[in-house]
């Protein structure tokens, strides 16, 4: 599979590395060139030498998404630090570029739930934390 | 009419003032605390502090009974999502969104956020009005309805000059609705003739301009 991940933070970079290890073709895009360092940490060879792709670009710029390979992507993940950016680009990936599987990180539980009802595959770290905390605190 | 405005920048604040002057009920939402304090000095309870992309903030502002939601923050993503949620989750009848970066206009369009207003595009249109290219002036664009009205001058040596309206080979989806001649306008019949110097008003599906302009300009000027 060809996987495009926008946002090279803790989540994006870690998922990218695992996907590459699992034998997938992986392209990562981030507005910050320095975020690339996360892809090389604890690795014996560099991200590019291992076969990974990295593009510097703003998520809303279509040219950047195309350069990062959105037209060939089988899977798209929006994992920038901004909920609003993630929700907009994931809808662009889904509706404009017809990427078959689109996953979006949304911190705000309210909108994660509503956009999930609208057909986006949302991941809400906040909701996971709430559920885990509830179990840790309230399980007798 | 109840109006919610997201973003109390220059645009949002002044819109709120104008609407309040027209006796509309208005709530303005601002997420920057310093800005909120400044605007609150003047508008008092009309302005609420919060991030208008969060559902509970919109609900606290009473979005369920809003007739119009205007998203004029400095972030295009925020404006898109505020309008999308207003329209699709809360069933708000009318929305207006501000486009900060004209290159993002395509995203507003694709996600059904209309009308989307861009200051850059408005000023560009005014410039074109002053300095029309190929004598074409866009008078009105109804984006949601997919119609526009343009004005063209009939130039000497053009295919249309001296022809009856029904003989002009207009593309499907376009119609001559008026002819202005010597400062007076009339609604023509198919057998009326257009003359060099006439201003012709057409209603058309967007995108047909490039097929229509060559009909009213001589071949050398058209390209």
Query: Which sheet architecture does the biggest sheet of chain A show?
Result: 6 strands, parallel
> CATH superfamily membership of chain A, which one?
NAD(P)-binding Rossmann-like Domain
In oligomeric terms, what are we looking at? heterodimer
CATH topology of the largest domain in chain B: Rossmann fold
In CATH terms, what is the architecture of chain A? Answer: 3-Layer(aba) Sandwich
Structural class of chain A: alpha/beta
What is the name of the CATH class of chain A?
Alpha Beta
User: Which fold name fills CATH's third level, the topology of chain A?
Assistant: Rossmann fold
Terminus-to-terminus distance of chain B: 49 Å
When the domains of chain B are counted, the total is: 2
List keywords for this structure.
heterodimer; A: 140 residues; alpha/beta; Rossmann fold; 6-stranded parallel β-sheet; 6 helices; globular; B: 223 residues; Alpha-Beta Plaits; 2 domains; 5-stranded antiparallel β-sheet; 8 helices; elongated
Could you explain the architecture of this structure?
The complex is a heterodimer of chains A (140) and B (223). Chain A starts with a strand and ends with a helix. In chain A, strands 3-2-1-4-5-6 form a six-stranded parallel β-sheet, with helices on both faces. The model of chain A has no long low-confidence stretch (mean pLDDT 95). Chain A is built from six helices and six strands. Chain A has a single domain, classed as Rossmann fold (3-Layer(aba) Sandwich), CATH 3.40.50. Chain A has 140 residues and is of the alpha/beta class. Chain B is an alpha/beta fold and 223 residues long. Chain B has two domains: 2-122, 3-Layer(aba) Sandwich (Rossmann fold), CATH 3.40.50.720; 133-222, Alpha-Beta Plaits. Chain B has eight helices and eleven strands. Chain B has helices at residues 10-21, 33-43, 55-60, 76-88, 105-110, 119-130, 209-216, 219-222; strands spanning 2-6, 25-30, 47-49, 68-71, 94-99, 116-118, 136-142, 147-153, 174-181, 184-186, 199-204. The longest helix of chain B has 13 residues, at 76-88. Chain B starts with a strand and ends with a helix.
